[in-house]
Every structure is written in C-alpha cells, then in structure tokens.
Write a structure and sequence with these properties.
477 residues, alpha/beta, Alkaline Phosphatase, subunit A, Arylsulfatase, C-terminal domain, 8-stranded mixed sheet, 4-stranded antiparallel sheet
Length: 477
Amino acid sequence: MRNIRNVTYSRCLLFFLVAGIFSSCRVTLAVKPTRPNIVVFVADDLGWSDLGYSGSSFYESPNIDLLSKRGMIFTNAYSNGPNCAPSRASLMSGMYTPRHGIYTVASSARGKSKDRRLIPVENNTILRDGIITLPEKLRTLGYRTGHFGKWHLGADPTTQGMDVNIAGREWGSPSGGGYRSPFNFPNLKSDKPGEYLTDRISEAACDFIRSSKKQPFFVYLSHYSVHTPIQPKKQYVEHFENKAEDRGHKNAGYAAMIQSLDESMGRIIQTLAAESLSENTIVIFVSDNGGHGGVTTNRPLRGAKGMLYEGGIRVPMIVHWPGKTAAGSRFDQSVIGVDLLPTILEMANGKSKKEPDEQPRDGISLVDVLDGTASGLVDRPLFWHFPAYLQASGSGAIRDPFRTRPVGAIRWGDWKLIEFFESGQVELYNLTDDISESKNLAASNPQQAALLLDKLQNWRQSVNAPVPQELNPDYED
C-alpha cells in the first residue's frame, strides 16, 4: 500500500512539476516583447507640397500616397535644420543642433566675406564618435541595422551603429557619375552600365530586408534623390513635359526624379509583403528639409531650402504602424526631427526616456498619438539655431546674397518668431492665420514677440548655443 501511495504521490508531483513548467513557459512567451521591424525612408530636398497626397497635381507619388492612406499624416512636421547635414545629425542623435555642433553643410562662412557682417560660429561636419546614435541604441535591443544611401555625417556609418553600409559616405550629393553607374562609392557596385542610383540603393535595401528575417531589423533608406544634380530617367521626362503646371510645379526632370523616389517606396512595400513582413514593420517617411528653391516651389509656404521660413524647414511626414495608426488619420500639432529617436525606441519596446547618465534627448515620443492613446502632445515650443551663412546661389529670385544669415527661430503653438543675429531684428507670424509668413506682427503684437524671444534666448542658454558676435573686418556695408 505504501508503495502504491508513493507511486501515486510521485506521479502527482511529476504532473504538477510539468504543468508548472508549461505554465511558466506560457507566461514567459506571453510577456516576451515582439519587436517590430522599422524602415525610415528619408527623401533629400523634397518639399512639403511636392507629393500627390499633399495637393500637387503635377508631381506624382502613388506609392507614398498609398502609405498616407494607410498611416498617419503629420501636417506640421519639421526638420531640425534648413539643409541636409544638421537635420540628419539631429535625427540620428535625438539632439538639437547646438548639442552636436552640426549647423550647416561644409563651412559656416559660405558666400563672400565682404558680405558677412559677423564671423560665424565654427561648424562641425562629422557626427562625433562619442554621440550615441539611434542605430547604436537599436543594436542593444537586438536589431540588425542597415544604412542605404546618403549618410553625410562622416566617412562610414558602420562606426556609428550600422551593421551594413551601402553608398554612405561624407558626401552630400552623388559624386563621380552622379545618378548613373559607374558609381564612385567604394561600397556600392553595379554590373549594369548606366544603372540608376535610386534603383540600385533601393534594391540593396530590399536584399537586406530579405536576409534579415531571423531578427528585427532597422532600415535607414536615406536617398540622395531628389537632391541636385537633376538627372532623371529620360523615359519618364516626356510624360511630365506634357502636363499642365500646378502652383508653380512645372519642372519635368524633378518630377521624374520624384517618380523614381516613389517607385523606391513601392519596392519596399512590395518586398515586405512578399516576405510576409508587412504586419510587423513600421514605415516612416520624411524629408530632410524643404524643397530647393531653384528646382521647385514650396507654395503656399515662404522660402526654400536653406531658410528658417516654413519653406525651408516644414517637411512631409507619414508614419504607418500596422495595427496601431488609424488609416488615413492626420495630426496637426507640430513635431520635429528629434522626436523620431524616442518614438522609434519606444516602438521597439525600448525606453522612450533616457537613462540618467545618457546624453540629452530633446524630442518626445509620439507613440501615444500614433496608437490613439492620446489626442495631442504636451504644449511645447520647437527651436532652430543656425549661426552660419548660406549663399543664395540656386535658391530663386533673392536680392540678398544669402539665403540665410545667422538666425534663430521658435515655434510655439500658432506663433513663430525669427531672430536675426546681425541686426537683432525679429519677425513674428501667426501660422494658423498666415501660413505664408506674409504679415510680420512683431510691431503690432510686441507682447507676443517679447514672450517668444525670451523663450528662444532662454533655450539657447540652456543648450549652450553659441551666437556669433564678432564683427568681420572684411565686411563692406
């Protein structure tokens, strides 16, 4: 009898042990985070109004338009700088420009010395190795990271978190043969004479997606297109030459380059679908700054690339997060490039807030807006700092020899203030009433101007933003 009881007791104990193990496994599986794949698709110099979904009837972008119908459109999205390098540095670091010191492209003393009243602040052209980047953070979460296209922050993005680098160098535009092979990139080859750069980079990104299915992946598809030189596929140009212009959109070559850019988005979407990855892949589309004034028009926005007017910094932005973002939704509150790092990290089941010993994070996570948990963001100002000169060449009919002189800006709610460092002059605009920044309200609303100027100056102090003050001895008044 004792043996029978012992056997029975042993069987019961074994049952509960096995049940406990399976129960433990179920719990473990239930809480194990499922990290989504993430594709960040960055266009170069694509204007806010240069797409079909944003109202252009001349430029055509059916694949990007489809993404806008599936995801959330951000109507007041901004880059952190009015040109390429500073906006990309802020996207990668999550920090405003004074913290990484990349304010412009190449020298901060662009143009003729006799036209510059001030000695500009020295500009960094390389993102410092000590700065922790978005891909470096994602690698700690188990992501395979790949860079495809324009880096513009140093010679090699694999030193700053990218496992794979295709065509990423310190260059800001295609070199050598431009957009057609043979390419002058040491890490991008083509066996097809005359192959189009946008297509080649896109295919490399798709190959990376196909080879990365065993772990979550991060694709930074950062095109050189539609940056000058304007070198479209010739077979696409005739179609646009026969179209009627729309709001100043009439450049057939530029339109053909947008078509190739849009086809790249189509390849990404098709590859994700073919590999059964669509439902677990977030796609973020954005431009690095406003449209180039010598190539397109940013109407109804004022200005163009290189300026802190809306045409230089307001950009198209779409986020498609399957199962989270409401299809065809719109968000009208202001967001900016530094918001992407905390947003992506939270999407990846990481932490949206930095650890106490980490570098600053100047943006905020947009996750609650994207998944519908919140209808809006905290009331916060956005800032820009450009202590440099940028000549006016190729930016349209501008009498001033500079597109941009040393300048700072703040947007807070409906209001935007621009401060010019040479003269101390300020301009104040209500963007809800005057999206074209045509009515300077600084004189008629001095209290609002003083409030924003105070916030802008306090912010500069908080981030140790250098303001040029030394007079240039070569200046000719």
